[in-house]
Every structure is written in structure tokens, then in C-alpha cells.
Amino acid sequence: MVRTAVVTGASSGIGKAVAAALVAKGYQVIGTSRKPESLRDEQRAPGVEYRALDVTDTASISTFAAGLDVVDVLVNNAGESQAGPLAELPDDAVARLFQLNVLGPVALTRAVLPGMRERRFGRVVMVGSMLGSFPMPYRSSYVATKAALRGFATAARFEESPFGVWITAVEPGQVNTGLRERRTKYLTENSPHTTDFTAFMAKLDQKQGEGITPAKVAETVVRAIEANRPKPLYAVGSAAPVMFLLRRVLPRSVMERLIARSYGLSR
Ligand SMILES: NC(=O)c1ccc[n+]([C@@H]2O[C@H](COP(=O)([O-])OP(=O)(O)OC[C@H]3O[C@@H](n4cnc5c(N)ncnc54)[C@H](OP(=O)(O)O)[C@@H]3O)[C@@H](O)[C@H]2O)c1
């Protein structure tokens, strides 16, 4: 039986790698892009059918969801990275980020859940971020979206798992994709945060450039999808097993100092 998977944001990075990995596993894969018609060959994962979806646009979500037939697997991957001191983030930028990283994925999930429940099979993967578990400065809006996404996933899985529908969060650490070039940054002129923000972002970009490959994340996503009883949370990259272990044993204040030091921030 050929299962159908939908992967949002399948034109680059993690989404493209997940789409390719699912094709290799024999899934029929529908990948999304805001502009599928203008994707270059190298942006397309072979064997994937590309459809239009803008997750910041509720009408686009409805049209896309209405065009779906059977969906066995949904990977909510499309997302944006945002940075800036909390006090300086424009309201509309924060709202856009929550629509793209949280409300859109939640709307898509709600659209496919009834069919999955009826067929007694479904897998939903929310691509979060380790930042959702290990907050960092100047990333408050992004951290909050990823923590919110994990909240939706880990709570709703209790509701749906009795029907064979498993919702899982996958939190990648640093992954070497083009995300950092597309990151939206907000810093006002003469901001008191300029020095720390600039140093932090340089370190962050350097760490992301040294991050794991999108294919490595795709392996974890596929493992979550193919598990009989997927775990609530998978993490990959940025020494995830050590970080989660330390978080369990160290006081939060010590953990916070360790993270600050690794990014060259004084506390
Ligand atoms: N890279 C990392 O280090 C890292 C770490 C942890 C978590 N993540 C998460 O992993 C996911 C993928 O990140 P990535 O690094 O692979 O990023 P990426 O290379 O920038 O890819 C982002 C994808 O999202 C799509 N997208 C962007 N805005 C969209 C919108 N408004 N509506 C629909 N699709 C949209 C893009 O497609 P089009 O431009 O074709 O529309 C693209 O395919 C994100 O959720 C990110 O937060 C990344």
C-alpha cells in the first residue's frame, strides 16, 4: 500500500531532504512551495509533486487543504527564522511569524486529522527547533513559536493516538541550510543591544554553517514517521542527547550560563 505524505516547504533545506527521503521509501509525496511554478530544477526533489501553499495566507491554506485527498503523513516543516531584541520586534513581524510557524501548521493539521482518524492511521510531524527547548537571547519570537508548536503536538497526541494517529515534534539543532540567509532581523538604529546582538548573530551564523546536513534531519523525521508508536519528541544535531541529559540533571540557572557562554554572552 502506497502512503501519501505532504511536506510543507519542500523547495529547500530540511523539507526538500525529507521529501526526497520519503520518495526513496516509496511514499507518494506532495511537496509545497509558495511559487512551485518558478522552482528551478535543483530546488525540486525528484519524484515529488509540487503544489502552491503560502502558510502566512489563510485562504491559501484552505485552497491547498481542499485539494488534498487521502493524507497519511503530514510534515509541517515550512518556517521562518527571526531575530531581534524583544523590545524592538515589530508587532506585524511577530504576528507573521506566529502565523507561519504555529497557526498555519496547526490549521493544516486540523484539516487532515479527521481523515486520518477515520482511516485509523496518521502521522503528523511538527518540525520545531531545539531553540524551543533551549531558549536563547534575540530569538524570543522564534523560540516562542517553536515551543508553541511543540505544545500543540505533545498535547494533541494524547487525543489522537488512540485512533492510530500520532503527532510528534522533531527538534533539529543547527542545520546547514540557507535559513540563515533568509532570517529576518530587527534591530533599531542606536539600539542598546547592537554590540551583543551583532556578536551573537555572527556566532549563531557560524554555528549554523557548521551544522548537520538536512539529510541527517530527514533520517530522524522518517524514523519518527515509521515508528509504530512515535515518541513525543525527537531531537537531532547540536549534541542533542548531551544537551537534553544536561538539562535533566543541571539546575536551570547553570544551564542558562552554559548556553550564554557558548555564544560568547556575558551573564
Ligand atoms: N536550519 C536550521 O538550523 C534549523 C534548525 C532548527 C529548526 N529548523 C526549522 O526547520 C524548518 C525548515 O528550515 P530550513 O532550514 O530547511 O529552511 P529553508 O531552507 O529556508 O526552507 C524553508 C522552506 O519553507 C518554505 N517557506 C518559507 N516561507 C513560507 C511561507 N510563507 N509559506 C509556505 N512555505 C514557506 C520555503 O519554500 P518557498 O520559498 O519555496 O515557498 C522553503 O521550502 C523551519 O521550520 C525551521 O524553523 C531549521
TrEMBL record:
<dbReference type="Pfam" id="PF00106">
    <property type="entry name" value="adh_short"/>
</dbReference>
<comment type="similarity">
    <text>Belongs to the short-chain dehydrogenases/reductases (SDR) family.</text>
</comment>
<dbReference type="InterPro" id="IPR036291">
    <property type="entry name" value="NAD(P)-bd_dom_sf"/>
</dbReference>
<protein>
    <submittedName>
        <fullName>SDR family oxidoreductase</fullName>
    </submittedName>
</protein>
<keyword id="KW-0560">Oxidoreductase</keyword>
<dbReference type="InterPro" id="IPR020904">
    <property type="entry name" value="Sc_DH/Rdtase_CS"/>
</dbReference>
<dbReference type="InterPro" id="IPR002347">
    <property type="entry name" value="SDR_fam"/>
</dbReference>
